[in-house]
Amino acid sequence: MPNIINTFITSAPFLAFLYLFIRTYSWTFRLQVENEGAWKEYHKKGGTVLLCTWHQHFFGAIRHFQSYRTYKPGLMISRSKDGHIIAEVARRSGWDPIRGSSSRGGLEAMFQLIDKLKKNRLAAHIVDGPRGPAGELKAGVIRISHAADAVIVPFYIQADKAWYFNSWDHFMLPKPFSKVTLLFDEMIKFPATTDNELFENQRLQLQETMRKGAKNLFG
Fold first, then answer.
1. Cβ(175)–Cβ(159) under 8 Å?
2. What three-state secondary structure class fits 91?
């Protein structure tokens, strides 16, 4: 029975239905987008942008992120079964999913994402990976930004009404017809370095910035 279920939920018809359901569900949100102009203008002038968020927040951004399909942006997604479903939703939204994570195939996927980012100058990354712990920023985002000479733009989702799952990330699902705010933080540019201490300081600085921005997750 588990094999039958797995085959069904990863089938093309089910994934097509899921994508349409997510689009319909997301359109019930009273969506407000804040502080998007600065990084889009930077990208328009030739800059490279890496959008970053916590695992808890990505669902609320799916609707608006479909508007970026013309950029053909990249997105790193784990090789798990859940990752396959998310990757197919991302693909139908106009994103280019690159399969791999900190726990499996991460190095290869990171190099692929860097190449994609250098080419199209826009990508997104979930900074605490597919398994967390929540609030622990993985080093990959810093390495990617260094290699692609990209600015990092954290973003957060706030919802006036939402469900929170009993999962490691307290995954947030905004309720239908709730007010949802997609808030972009300021652009952050870290100079490339081979100094381990400086690299760790950059990671901690970004982690602290993104913890402050994610009020849903850390209070």
1. yes
2. helix
pTM, two decimals, is: 0.91
Domains: count for the chain: 1
Range of the domain at 72: 2-218
The two structure tokens encoding residue 132: 């967390």
| The token pair that represents 84 in the structure block | 């396959």
pLDDT digits (tens, 9 = 90+) for 99-139: 876 666 678 899 999 999 999 999 999 999 888 898 999 99
CATH of the domain at 119: 3.40.1130.10
Alpha carbons within 13 A on the beta-carbon side of 107: 0
Peptide bond into 174 cis (omega under 30): no
DSSP per-residue codes, 122-175: EEEEETTTTT--TT---THHHHHHHHHT-EEEEEEEEESSEEE-SSTT--EEEP
